[in-house]
Write a structure and sequence with these properties.
Layout (H helix, E strand, L loop, with lengths): L8 E5 L9 H5 L5 E4 L4 E4 L9 H5 L5 E5 L12 H13 L4 E2 L14 E3 L20 E3 L8 E2 L6 E2 L7 E3 L3 E3 L9 H14 L3 E2 L16 E5 L8 H5 L3 E5 L10 E3 L6 H7 L7 E3 L9 H14 L6 E6 L4 H10 L4 E5 L8 E2 H6 L4 H14 L7 E5 L5 H10 L3 E4 L1 H6 L22 H4 L4 H25 L15 E3 L4 H7 L2 E2 L3
Parallel strand pairs: 11-21, 12-13, 13-14, 14-17, 17-18, 18-20, 20-21, 22-23
Antiparallel strand pairs: 1-4, 2-3, 5-19, 6-22, 7-10, 8-9, 15-16
Bound molecules: iron/sulfur cluster (3 copies).
């Protein structure tokens, strides 16, 4: 059958600049470029290009430009080229459209429609270079009140605190499973989290034995497939996270194809080599909040009551009510993952059409937990589209205790968000199990890039806090007075619980 698909990308090679070094030929796992010795020329097949920019980035003479195919369906906002190509693809394959990373539709990004306040005269700003600025954050249930015993210098806190996670910056690395990404990616995340005083998350793929040494900074996930969940795994966690859902694909399970299940992954996930790893959509033992509560307490019991247990859900219409149920079920941390949350593979229609933006879910959940008087009983962590330190500061002002970053962390290691993670041929060595590609990400460099990223964000968060006259991130949490909306409707402002700029 003749394919009607046009190449997604076009590549321009400047022949005057090209020195025929063949770097592009070696770097592209999609076999787009080749060199013909007889002609002493490089050729290309654009139909195979996924736009990952690896060749253009590494070309020593900057001879390559990779850009989206500008071909368009003239004057038709409804039947765009993307829509046509999707239909051609399905008419040719009869399959479900697959994609990777997060939703790329232009739904409003509320972070970009909110601005922060700054001090001017009566409440002066603080210079973070000269004065201490506290970013340390504790995640976990907080008591309603502190009971103090003793007098004067002998005063002691009598209240028994629930287990807490200590973060030096209110940013953690999202759940990204070994299998979806390479071992070197996991190691980069684990090392960076340890160095920066924060946490990385195993995702649902278990924990490779070589990464147990990072256990003090590891959050171990328990998902519906229970891959790699055993007593040592629970021991190796600083906190445990029950994954009910994820923002990229709410309501559906996961699928790691058998060809990606190598010997190492099979050992880590505790499944036979080469078999498909299918995570069911629901946990087959959770059909109510009471069932969820039983799993939370089972995990607390199994981990000797010294580790916080978190529950992660995808942000959907009623996530505020679900968050309330999760807190009442005994979770120490509630994680909300918005529609822009990334993934290794998801059906395109689910990724782009199911779920809600994290900003609205966060505001609604924080408002509800406060109204019910249970906000202190769990921390709220948000994920799904946190791109910068400014997003983090706005999330905290909106009510979050901390943020998870996934895509931003991968971008820090080189990802160019080509959204083709599901092919397993990530040219940046991230979303792949191909040993030749995986070694492109050196964990020393990956970890250094991530710690640099977090350091840069820390400085920026301190600057923004200082500008607002605040010297501790704790003082900003849920302080929506420090936010204003720009170009938002009254309804959106009401849900976000903020005033419009100028008010
Ligand atoms: S990497 Fe650049 S210079 Fe080398 S062959 Fe390719 S286009 Fe030419
Ligand atoms: S897939 Fe990536 S490396 Fe290959 S040609 Fe396209 S942009 Fe270059
Ligand atoms: S991880 Fe690799 S395959 Fe996935 S979006 Fe990033 S560059 Fe593309």
């Amino acid at each position: 059958m003749k394919s009607y698909l046009l190449p997604e990308f076009v590549i321009d090679r400047d022949d005057f600049r090209c020195i025929r070094c063949e770097v592009c030929v070696r770097q592209c796992a999609n076999d787009v470029h080749w060199y013909d010795e007889e002609d002493d020329a490089c050729y290309l097949d654009e139909t195979k290009c996924v736009g990952c920019q690896r060749c253009a980035t590494l070309c020593p003479t900057s001879a390559l430009t990779v850009r989206r195919n500008p071909a368009s369906n003239p004057d038709n906002a409804n039947w765009t080229m993307d829509v046509l190509m999707n239909i051609y693809k399905q008419a040719e394959t009869g399959g479900v459209l697959l994609t990777g990373m997060g939703c790329d539709r232009d739904y409003p990004i509320y972070w970009d429609r909110m601005v922060l306040d700054a001090s001017q005269v009566t409440n002066p700003s603080i210079d973070p270079l000269r004065e201490p600025m506290e970013l340390r954050t504790y995640l976990g249930a907080k008591p309603d009140a502190l009971e103090i015993k003793g007098e004067g210098a002998n005063q002691r806190v009598k209240t028994r605190m629930a287990p807490q996670l200590k973060l030096e910056i209110p940013v953690m690395f999202s759940a990204i499973s070994y299998g979806a990404v390479s071992f070197n990616t996991c190691e980069s995340l684990a090392r960076a989290a340890t160095e920066a005083g924060t946490y990385w998350n195993t995702g649902e793929g278990g924990l490779h034995s070589k990464l147990y040494k990072y256990k003090d900074h590891t959050i171990c996930q328990v998902a519906s497939g229970r891959f790699g969940v055993h007593a040592d795994y629970l021991e190796a966690a600083a906190a445990l996270e029950i994954k009910i859902g994820q923002g990229a694909k709410p309501g559906i399970g996961g699928h790691l194809p058998g060809e990606k299940v190598s010997a190492e992954i099979s050992r880590t996930r505790m499944i036979p080599k080469g078999t498909d790893a299918l995570s069911p959509a629901p946990h087959h033992d959770i059909y109510s909040i009471e069932d969820l509560s039983q799993l939370i307490y089972a995990l607390k019991e199994a981990s000797h009551w010294v580790k916080p247990v978190s529950v992660k859900i995808a942000a959907v219409h009623n996530s505020a009510a679900i968050a309330s149920g999760i807190v009442r079920a005994g979770a120490d941390i509630v994680v909300l993952d918005g529609i822009r949350g990334g993934t290794g593979a998801a059906p395109t229609m689910i990724r782009d059409n199911v779920g809600i933006p994290i900003e609205l879910a966060l505001a609604a959940a924080d408002t509800r937990l406060r109204a019910e008087g249970i906000r202190n009983r769990a921390s709220v962590v948000v994920a799904g589209g946190i791109r910068s330190s400014a997003d983090v500061v706005k999330a905290i002002a909106l009510g979050a205790d901390a943020c998870y970053i996934g895509t931003a962390a991968l971008v820090g290691m080189g990802c160019h968000v080509c959204q083709k993670c599901y092919t397993g041929k990530c040219n940046w060595g991230i979303a792949t199990q191909d040993p030749y590609l995986a070694k492109r990400l050196n964990p020393d460099i990956g970890a250094r890039r991530l710690t640099n990223l977090l350091r840069g964000w820390s400085h920026e968060i301190q600057e923004m806090l200082g500008g607002m006259g605040i010297n501790a991130i704790e003082s900003l949490r849920g302080n929506r007075q420090r936010l204003r909306g720009v170009g938002l409707s009254r309804e959106e402002l009401d849900i976000l619980g903020i005033k419009h700029a100028g008010e």
